[in-house]
Amino acid sequence: MDIDDILASVDRGNYSSPESTALDHQQLTRFWVAERAVSELLPWPAPLMDRMMERVRKQIEIIEDLAASSADPSTSTTNNPTLNLKLSILQTDLSRTQYLIRSFLRQRLAKLTKYSMHYLLLISPPRESQTQSTQSTTAQPEDSIPDPSAAVDTSPLSPQEAAFIHAHQNLLAEHYGLSFMGSFPPPLRRLDDNAGGTRMVQAPDTKEVVFVRCLVEEVSVIVPADDAAGLQEEYGTTMHMGEVWGVRWEGIKRAWERGEVEIL
Protein backbone atom coordinates (compact mmCIF):
# COMPACT_ATOMS: atom_id res chain seq x y z
CA MET A 1 0.00 0.00 0.00
CA ASP A 2 1.51 3.36 -1.04
CA ILE A 3 0.80 6.84 0.37
CA ASP A 4 -1.89 7.60 -2.21
CA ASP A 5 -3.75 4.42 -1.26
CA ILE A 6 -3.55 5.31 2.44
CA LEU A 7 -4.95 8.81 1.88
CA ALA A 8 -7.59 7.48 -0.51
CA SER A 9 -8.80 5.02 2.11
CA VAL A 10 -10.08 7.93 4.17
CA ASP A 11 -12.68 8.69 1.50
CA ARG A 12 -13.86 5.16 0.85
CA GLY A 13 -17.44 4.56 1.79
CA ASN A 14 -18.54 8.21 1.64
CA TYR A 15 -19.79 10.61 -1.00
CA SER A 16 -16.35 11.81 -2.15
CA SER A 17 -13.64 10.26 -4.27
CA PRO A 18 -9.85 10.59 -4.00
CA GLU A 19 -9.93 12.72 -7.15
CA SER A 20 -12.46 15.17 -5.72
CA THR A 21 -10.51 15.29 -2.45
CA ALA A 22 -7.32 16.27 -4.29
CA LEU A 23 -9.25 18.86 -6.31
CA ASP A 24 -10.77 20.37 -3.17
CA HIS A 25 -7.32 20.62 -1.57
CA GLN A 26 -6.10 22.45 -4.64
CA GLN A 27 -9.07 24.82 -4.57
CA LEU A 28 -8.61 25.50 -0.86
CA THR A 29 -4.92 26.27 -1.44
CA ARG A 30 -5.81 28.69 -4.23
CA PHE A 31 -8.44 30.41 -2.08
CA TRP A 32 -5.90 30.68 0.73
CA VAL A 33 -3.24 32.23 -1.54
CA ALA A 34 -5.79 34.63 -3.03
CA GLU A 35 -7.10 35.67 0.40
CA ARG A 36 -3.57 36.48 1.52
CA ALA A 37 -2.78 38.49 -1.62
CA VAL A 38 -5.91 40.66 -1.85
CA SER A 39 -6.93 43.31 0.69
CA GLU A 40 -10.61 42.84 -0.14
CA LEU A 41 -12.61 40.03 1.45
CA LEU A 42 -13.24 37.36 -1.18
CA PRO A 43 -16.58 35.50 -1.45
CA TRP A 44 -17.01 32.78 1.17
CA PRO A 45 -16.63 29.35 -0.53
CA ALA A 46 -19.45 27.68 1.38
CA PRO A 47 -19.74 24.35 -0.53
CA LEU A 48 -15.96 23.87 -0.52
CA MET A 49 -15.62 24.60 3.19
CA ASP A 50 -18.55 22.32 4.05
CA ARG A 51 -16.87 19.45 2.20
CA MET A 52 -13.46 20.14 3.76
CA MET A 53 -14.84 20.30 7.31
CA GLU A 54 -16.76 17.05 6.77
CA ARG A 55 -13.59 15.35 5.55
CA VAL A 56 -11.64 16.67 8.54
CA ARG A 57 -14.28 15.31 10.91
CA LYS A 58 -14.24 11.86 9.29
CA GLN A 59 -10.45 11.79 9.11
CA ILE A 60 -10.21 12.55 12.83
CA GLU A 61 -12.60 9.67 13.53
CA ILE A 62 -10.46 7.30 11.43
CA ILE A 63 -7.25 8.43 13.17
CA GLU A 64 -8.85 7.90 16.58
CA ASP A 65 -9.95 4.39 15.55
CA LEU A 66 -6.46 3.57 14.28
CA ALA A 67 -4.87 4.95 17.45
CA ALA A 68 -7.15 2.76 19.53
CA SER A 69 -6.23 -0.25 17.39
CA SER A 70 -2.51 0.39 17.79
CA ALA A 71 -2.94 0.33 21.56
CA ASP A 72 -4.70 -3.03 21.40
CA PRO A 73 -2.21 -5.90 21.99
CA SER A 74 -4.08 -8.10 19.52
CA THR A 75 -3.39 -5.60 16.70
CA SER A 76 0.17 -4.65 17.58
CA THR A 77 2.79 -3.67 15.02
CA THR A 78 3.96 -7.30 15.05
CA ASN A 79 0.65 -8.40 13.51
CA ASN A 80 0.20 -5.25 11.41
CA PRO A 81 3.56 -3.53 10.69
CA THR A 82 1.96 -0.85 8.46
CA LEU A 83 -0.47 0.39 11.12
CA ASN A 84 1.83 3.01 12.66
CA LEU A 85 2.99 4.17 9.24
CA LYS A 86 -0.59 4.56 8.07
CA LEU A 87 -1.48 6.46 11.25
CA SER A 88 1.51 8.79 10.83
CA ILE A 89 0.65 9.59 7.20
CA LEU A 90 -2.99 10.31 8.00
CA GLN A 91 -2.02 12.60 10.89
CA THR A 92 0.41 14.49 8.64
CA ASP A 93 -2.24 14.93 5.96
CA LEU A 94 -4.76 16.10 8.58
CA SER A 95 -2.28 18.64 9.95
CA ARG A 96 -1.73 20.03 6.45
CA THR A 97 -5.46 20.49 5.91
CA GLN A 98 -5.99 22.05 9.33
CA TYR A 99 -3.15 24.50 8.74
CA LEU A 100 -4.71 25.68 5.46
CA ILE A 101 -8.15 26.09 7.04
CA ARG A 102 -6.82 27.94 10.11
CA SER A 103 -4.65 30.28 8.06
CA PHE A 104 -7.49 30.94 5.61
CA LEU A 105 -9.90 31.82 8.44
CA ARG A 106 -7.33 34.02 10.19
CA GLN A 107 -6.80 36.03 7.00
CA ARG A 108 -10.54 36.61 6.74
CA LEU A 109 -10.87 37.52 10.42
CA ALA A 110 -8.08 40.08 10.07
CA LYS A 111 -9.95 41.76 7.20
CA LEU A 112 -13.28 41.54 9.01
CA THR A 113 -11.97 43.30 12.09
CA LYS A 114 -10.13 45.93 10.03
CA TYR A 115 -13.04 46.76 7.72
CA SER A 116 -15.96 45.71 9.92
CA MET A 117 -18.02 48.88 9.43
CA HIS A 118 -17.52 48.77 5.67
CA TYR A 119 -18.82 45.22 5.39
CA LEU A 120 -21.70 45.86 7.78
CA LEU A 121 -22.88 48.70 5.55
CA LEU A 122 -22.37 46.51 2.49
CA ILE A 123 -24.48 43.56 3.62
CA SER A 124 -27.12 45.31 5.75
CA PRO A 125 -30.43 46.46 4.25
CA PRO A 126 -30.96 50.24 3.94
CA ARG A 127 -31.94 51.87 7.19
CA GLU A 128 -34.65 54.43 7.81
CA SER A 129 -33.71 58.04 8.38
CA GLN A 130 -32.06 58.54 11.74
CA THR A 131 -32.32 62.32 11.85
CA GLN A 132 -34.01 62.36 15.23
CA SER A 133 -31.53 59.99 16.84
CA THR A 134 -28.63 61.96 15.36
CA GLN A 135 -29.88 65.19 16.89
CA SER A 136 -30.90 63.55 20.17
CA THR A 137 -28.77 64.22 23.19
CA THR A 138 -28.82 60.51 23.94
CA ALA A 139 -27.33 59.43 20.59
CA GLN A 140 -24.44 56.99 21.02
CA PRO A 141 -21.85 55.55 18.58
CA GLU A 142 -23.57 52.14 18.56
CA ASP A 143 -26.74 53.80 17.18
CA SER A 144 -24.99 54.17 13.82
CA ILE A 145 -24.18 50.47 13.46
CA PRO A 146 -26.39 48.68 10.90
CA ASP A 147 -28.00 45.35 11.75
CA PRO A 148 -27.34 42.58 9.18
CA SER A 149 -29.79 40.13 10.76
CA ALA A 150 -32.47 41.01 8.19
CA ALA A 151 -30.10 40.69 5.23
CA VAL A 152 -31.23 38.18 2.61
CA ASP A 153 -27.71 37.76 1.19
CA THR A 154 -24.58 38.28 3.30
CA SER A 155 -22.11 37.72 0.43
CA PRO A 156 -19.11 37.96 0.47
CA LEU A 157 -19.42 37.02 4.16
CA SER A 158 -20.76 33.81 5.60
CA PRO A 159 -23.75 34.16 8.01
CA GLN A 160 -21.39 33.37 10.92
CA GLU A 161 -18.98 36.11 9.80
CA ALA A 162 -21.84 38.60 9.52
CA ALA A 163 -22.94 37.86 13.09
CA PHE A 164 -19.32 38.13 14.27
CA ILE A 165 -18.62 41.58 12.82
CA HIS A 166 -21.95 42.90 14.11
CA ALA A 167 -21.08 41.83 17.66
CA HIS A 168 -17.48 43.02 17.22
CA GLN A 169 -18.51 46.47 15.98
CA ASN A 170 -21.07 46.87 18.77
CA LEU A 171 -18.40 46.16 21.40
CA LEU A 172 -16.01 48.54 19.68
CA ALA A 173 -18.63 51.31 19.46
CA GLU A 174 -19.53 50.88 23.13
CA HIS A 175 -15.85 51.12 24.04
CA TYR A 176 -15.44 54.28 21.94
CA GLY A 177 -18.51 55.82 23.53
CA LEU A 178 -17.32 55.20 27.09
CA SER A 179 -13.74 56.21 26.33
CA PHE A 180 -14.08 59.48 24.44
CA MET A 181 -16.96 59.76 21.94
CA GLY A 182 -19.55 60.16 24.68
CA SER A 183 -18.17 63.66 25.32
CA PHE A 184 -18.61 64.69 21.66
CA PRO A 185 -21.67 66.64 20.45
CA PRO A 186 -24.41 64.20 19.31
CA PRO A 187 -23.92 64.88 15.56
CA LEU A 188 -20.27 63.83 15.87
CA ARG A 189 -20.88 60.48 17.54
CA ARG A 190 -21.68 58.54 14.39
CA LEU A 191 -19.16 55.97 13.16
CA ASP A 192 -20.35 56.21 9.56
CA ASP A 193 -20.16 60.01 9.25
CA ASN A 194 -19.17 61.41 5.86
CA ALA A 195 -19.51 65.12 6.69
CA GLY A 196 -16.91 67.49 5.33
CA GLY A 197 -15.95 65.18 2.47
CA THR A 198 -14.03 62.85 4.80
CA ARG A 199 -15.23 59.27 4.94
CA MET A 200 -14.83 57.69 8.36
CA VAL A 201 -15.52 54.17 7.13
CA GLN A 202 -12.28 52.54 5.99
CA ALA A 203 -12.62 50.33 2.90
CA PRO A 204 -10.21 47.88 1.24
CA ASP A 205 -7.93 49.22 -1.48
CA THR A 206 -9.09 47.73 -4.78
CA LYS A 207 -6.35 49.54 -6.69
CA GLU A 208 -3.59 47.42 -5.19
CA VAL A 209 -1.42 45.34 -7.50
CA VAL A 210 -1.66 41.54 -7.50
CA PHE A 211 0.24 38.94 -9.51
CA VAL A 212 -1.93 36.64 -11.59
CA ARG A 213 -1.50 33.84 -14.12
CA CYS A 214 -3.81 33.50 -17.11
CA LEU A 215 -5.55 30.08 -17.27
CA VAL A 216 -7.51 30.49 -20.51
CA GLU A 217 -6.73 31.52 -24.08
CA GLU A 218 -7.06 35.24 -23.32
CA VAL A 219 -8.41 37.52 -20.61
CA SER A 220 -9.37 41.18 -20.84
CA VAL A 221 -7.93 43.42 -18.12
CA ILE A 222 -10.07 46.54 -17.70
CA VAL A 223 -8.79 49.37 -15.49
CA PRO A 224 -11.32 52.16 -14.75
CA ALA A 225 -10.45 55.81 -15.21
CA ASP A 226 -8.59 57.32 -12.26
CA ASP A 227 -7.68 61.01 -12.19
CA ALA A 228 -5.38 60.52 -9.21
CA ALA A 229 -3.33 57.96 -11.15
CA GLY A 230 -3.35 60.00 -14.36
CA LEU A 231 -5.81 57.73 -16.23
CA GLN A 232 -8.31 60.03 -17.91
CA GLU A 233 -10.33 57.17 -19.45
CA GLU A 234 -10.90 53.45 -19.05
CA TYR A 235 -7.91 51.36 -20.07
CA GLY A 236 -8.02 47.81 -21.35
CA THR A 237 -5.48 45.19 -22.42
CA THR A 238 -5.35 41.43 -22.95
CA MET A 239 -3.52 38.62 -21.19
CA HIS A 240 -2.81 35.30 -22.90
CA MET A 241 -2.61 31.77 -21.50
CA GLY A 242 0.38 31.12 -19.26
CA GLU A 243 1.36 34.78 -18.89
CA VAL A 244 2.04 36.17 -15.41
CA TRP A 245 1.22 39.85 -14.90
CA GLY A 246 1.17 42.36 -12.08
CA VAL A 247 -2.17 44.17 -12.46
CA ARG A 248 -4.63 46.14 -10.37
CA TRP A 249 -7.05 43.96 -8.47
CA GLU A 250 -10.03 46.00 -9.70
CA GLY A 251 -8.99 45.27 -13.30
CA ILE A 252 -8.75 41.48 -12.90
CA LYS A 253 -11.37 40.79 -10.20
CA ARG A 254 -14.14 39.70 -12.58
CA ALA A 255 -11.78 37.40 -14.46
CA TRP A 256 -10.75 35.79 -11.15
CA GLU A 257 -14.40 35.26 -10.21
CA ARG A 258 -14.95 33.49 -13.54
CA GLY A 259 -11.91 31.25 -12.91
CA GLU A 260 -9.96 32.66 -15.87
CA VAL A 261 -6.91 33.64 -13.78
CA GLU A 262 -5.30 32.48 -10.55
CA ILE A 263 -3.64 34.74 -7.99
CA LEU A 264 -0.03 33.97 -7.17
Q: How many helix segments?
A: 8
Radius of gyration: 25 Å
What is the CATH class name of the domain at 15-72 and 79-113? Mainly Alpha
Mean pLDDT: 82
Structural class: mainly alpha
The assigned CATH architecture of the domain at 15-72 and 79-113 is Up-down Bundle
Q: N- to C-terminal separation?
A: 35 Å
Percentage of residues in DSSP E strands? 5-15%
Order of SSEs: HHHHHHHEEEEHE
Q: How much helicity do the residues have?
A: 40-55%
Which blocks of ≥5 consecutive residues have pLDDT under 50?
A: 130-135
Strand order of the largest sheet: 4-1-5
- How many strands in all? 5
What is the CATH fold-level name of the domain at 15-72 and 79-113? Methane Monooxygenase Hydroxylase, Chain G, domain 1
Main sheet makeup: 3 strands, antiparallel
Q: How does the overall form come out from the CA principal axes? A: flat
